[in-house]
Structure formats: structure tokens, C-alpha cells
Amino acid sequence: MIELVVISRLLEYPDAALWQHQQEVFDALASGENLAKADAQHVGVFLRDLTSQELLDAQANYSELFDRGRATSLLLFEHVHGESRDRGQAMVDLLAQYERHGLQLDSRELPDHLPLYLEYLAQLPFAEAIGGLQDIAPILALLKARLAQRESHYATLFDALLSLANTQVDNAQVAEKIAGEARDDTPQALDAVWEEEQVKFFAEQGCGDSDITAHQRRFAGAVAPQYLNITTGGER
User: Fold this and answer.
1) What is the 3-state secondary structure (H, E, C) of 25-51?
2) How many domains is the chain built from?
3) Considering 11, 173, 184, 199, which has the largest number of Cβ atoms within 10 A of its Cβ?
4) Which of the four pLDDT bands, split at 50, 70 and 90, describes residue 6?
5) Residue 229 near residue 118, CB atoms below 8 Å
6) Is residue 199 part of a domain?
7) Range of the domain at 69
8) Does Repeat count among this protein's keywords (predicted)?
């Protein structure tokens, strides 16, 4: 599903290749048949606006949005398992699922990174790809709401994914959940998290407990053509 490949690429850390090959991305988006016309137009506007920025500005904005705090993290298991010990085995299971479909990751990539998961889904038969999107629809809705709250145009991409998923999400429940959330990307919030993790680290060292074990629910997943068929999760 080419639309998933396009959105996967747009959710990646912005790089010079996207600026250089933006017309190919526009053409790929136009060739898709699964997004509603309005959604496809909104994604196209997002791409136009993104690439009209200076690359360094786009990169700085991306890092501010997705790399500070956990609320808008693009790591799926952050929103499923948090810091639970289940997360380690969940990573292993998802990685094995990718490998069964011929998707090999390099050492930089985390298997639950949303752009990678979308790339994986894009390789699957249509019904399986939609099922994979439906599995993560509650996470997509939560991220969309948080991004919209921060007035980020990236919310557009999550609108498109939810449209493709064609599933019902309780928007009122999502809105209620985020209404009372404190921002976790402020300097004060980040300092508090760092201090908490330092205390936890030393406590775990004292107990000699460093194993990460557990279980997860599985996702389903894919990749695609030429320029768009690139390794996700690249270096920054």
C-alpha cells in the first residue's frame, strides 16, 4: 500500500533526500487509490509545507516534537508497555515477525518505531495491512490528539492513517485522557524524568536485577518502491 510508504517516509527524521526527491513522493501519493481524495490532498499539503522549510529548521522542529518527552514518542511500545519489563520481549517478538516477512533491520533501528512498522505493513496484503493499522488505532488517535493540542501539522498524517484504518475510535475518551495531561517535554519535566531514571538505575543495580523479560500482543506489518523503499530509523 503506497500510501503507508509515503506516510512512513514523512514520519521519518527529515533528511536532504526527502527535499531532493519530493516530487517522487508527490507522484507516489497521487498514484495511491486507498486514501480519500481530501486526505490525500492534506498529506500533499503537509509535504509541500514541510519541504518549504529550511532542512535544519525542519529537523529541529521534528526533534522538539518527537524526541522530547514520551507523550508524542513514535515508539509504539512506549504507549503500550511504557517502562514495563514486557517491552523487551515485545521487541524480540516483533523483530521476529519482521524477519519472517523478509524485513531485516540494522543495529540502529528499533522494531516498534512507527515509520518502520508502517513500512512493514505496506508489504502485506491489503486486508492484513488494514488489520495492522486497526491494532494500533488507539495509539494513533492518542498521538493525533496530542499533536493537534500542540498545533503540529504532523497531526495530519495521523488523520490519514486513522482514515485508512477505517475503525471507530472513541474521540471523546481520547480528549478526556489528554485534557488533564501535563506537558512532559518542558525542561522541568525532562529533568524530573532524568532524576527518576537515575534513582531507578542505581536501585536495580543494587538488586542485581538486569533481566528484561515478558510478553506482548502482536502487531501485523511491510516496505515498498525505489526512493521510498529506504531504511527507516536513520542516524541523526
Assistant:
1) HHHHHHHCCCCCHHHHHHHHHHHHHHH
2) 1
3) 11
4) very high
5) no
6) no
7) 2-179
8) no
